[in-house]
Amino acid sequence: MRNTSQFDASNSMLGYIYQIRFALYLSLKKLSDLADPEQFNVSIEKLDDIAFDSDGSPEELLQTKFHGNEGNLTDRSPDIWKTIRVWVESIKSGEISLGNIILSLVTTQAVADGSLASLLGSGPKRDIDEAQQIMSGICEEPNQTNDKGYKAFKSLSAAERNSLLSAIYVVGNSEDLLQIRENMKPIARQSVPVQAADAFLDRIEGNWFKWIVEALSDTPSGIINLGVLQELVDNIRPEYALTNLPAEYVDALPDAMDVDNDMRIFVKQMRLFKAPKKLIELAITNYYRAFEQRNKWAGDGLLNPGEISGFDRKLFEKWYEQQAFMEMQTALDTDEAKRAYSARLYQYCQQQGVVPIRPDFVEEYLSKGSYHMLSDDLKIGWHPEFEQLGDASNEGVA
Q: So which domain of life are we looking at (predicted)?
C-alpha cells in the first residue's frame, strides 16, 4: 500500500493544472466563434477560477472542481455551496451583475438524476424552481462545512435567488486532464496537419502557462487577451504546414563550451585546417542546434519516414560534388595547399551548401549543424586526410 504524506499537495496541484488547461481549451473553442477576439479576455483566479469578459464586462464565470477519485456531486456537496458563496459575494460586492452572465460549475464528479446538480444542468430536466425549493430546505439544516454557503444563499431575496439560479449551469462528468488535451486536438487539426497536432498544442500550451504565471504575478491579477492567443495560433501555424517545420532552436546555445578541451571528431576536423576559435565556437553552436532540433522533430512525430536520411544524403552529395571539383582544380602537394583547400571546402558547405529540409524551412542552422554531424561520423571531411581521424573517439564528450 502506498503511503501518502499528510502534506501531499498532488491533488491541489492537479486541480490548478486542470483549471489552467481547461481555460485554454475553452479559449481555443471561443476563437472560432468570436468576430473579434481582441475584445475578449480570460483571467484565472481573478473574478473566479476562470472568467471571460468582453471589454471588461464579465460574461462567463467558471468554478472548476477536479477530483482524482470518482464520486457523485451530492446536494450537500461543499463544491456546490462554496461556489454559491463565492458567487453571492461577487454579486453583493458589485463585481458581477446578474442578467447577462453565465455561471458554470464544472466538476469531474458525476451528477445523479434528480439531484440538485441535475436540476441546474443544461438538459431537458433543468428546473430552477425545484432547485430553489431544495436549496431553501437544505439551508435550514445545521452544517458547519457549508454554513457560509447556506447563509449566503439565505441572504438573497426570492427574486435574487431565482436570478442567480437562472444563471447557474452545473456540468458534471467533466473530462480529466488527459481527456481535455484530447479534446483540443480536433481544434488544432483545423489549423495544422493531423500529425502535427500534438506538437502544435505543446507550443501553444507552453506559451499559455507562461502567460498564466505572468498574469497571476500581476497585482491585481491580470488578464490574457484572446487576441494574443489568436496571434500566437496564426504566427506558428505556418511552421507546422506540410512544407515547413518549426524552427525552435534558432537562438539556442549549448549549456557550456570549452573549445580548447573539446575532443569531438567534428571539432578535430576543423583543427586539421587550423580553423580560428570563433569559427569552432560557431560550429559547436550549430552542431548543438541541429542535433537538438532533429531530436525534437523526431520526438514530436513531425518527420516523414526517411526524411532525415534523405536530407543528410543531399548534404553529402553537395559536399561530394564540391570536393570532386576542387580536387580536380587544386594541387594538394603541400600542407599549406591542403589547409587552403580544406578552408575553401568548409566555407562552401557552410554557405553555398545550405539545403532546406522542406521548401519553406529557411533557417540555416539545420544544414550547417548537420554537416558537422556528418563530419562527426567521418562520413564527410574538410581536410584531404580527414579519414585518419578514424581512430578518434567521442566517448565521454557531451
A: Bacteria
In angstroms, the CA 309 to CA 52 distance is: 48
Is residue 248 in a domain? no
Residues 155 and 91 in one domain: yes
- What confidence tens digit (pLDDT) does each residue in 89-101 have? 999 998 888 888 9
Predicted TM-score (pTM) of the model is 0.82
Q: Is residue 368 a part of any domain in this protein?
A: yes
Which pLDDT tens digit goes with each residue over 184-228?
999 999 999 999 999 999 999 999 999 999 998 887 778 999 999
Please report how the helices 365-376 and 277-300 are oriented relative to each other, as an axis angle in degrees rounded to 10: 100
Strand pairing category for 224-225 and 50-54: unpaired
In a domain, 85, yes or no: yes
DSSP symbol at 386: G
What is the residue-wise DSSP string for 72-141?
B--TT-HHHHHHHHHHHHHHHHTS--TTS-EEEEEESSB--TTSHHHHTSSSTT--HHHHHHHHHHHTTS
Taken in order 323, 324, 327, 330, the sign of the CA dihedral is: negative
| 5 within domain boundaries | no
Quote the CA–CA distance of 274 and 68 in Å, as a whole number.
Answer: 62
Q: What residue numbers bound the domain in which 290 lies? A: 259-391
Same domain flag for 177 and 88: yes
Is the pLDDT score of 368 beyond 90? yes
Same domain for 168 and 92? yes
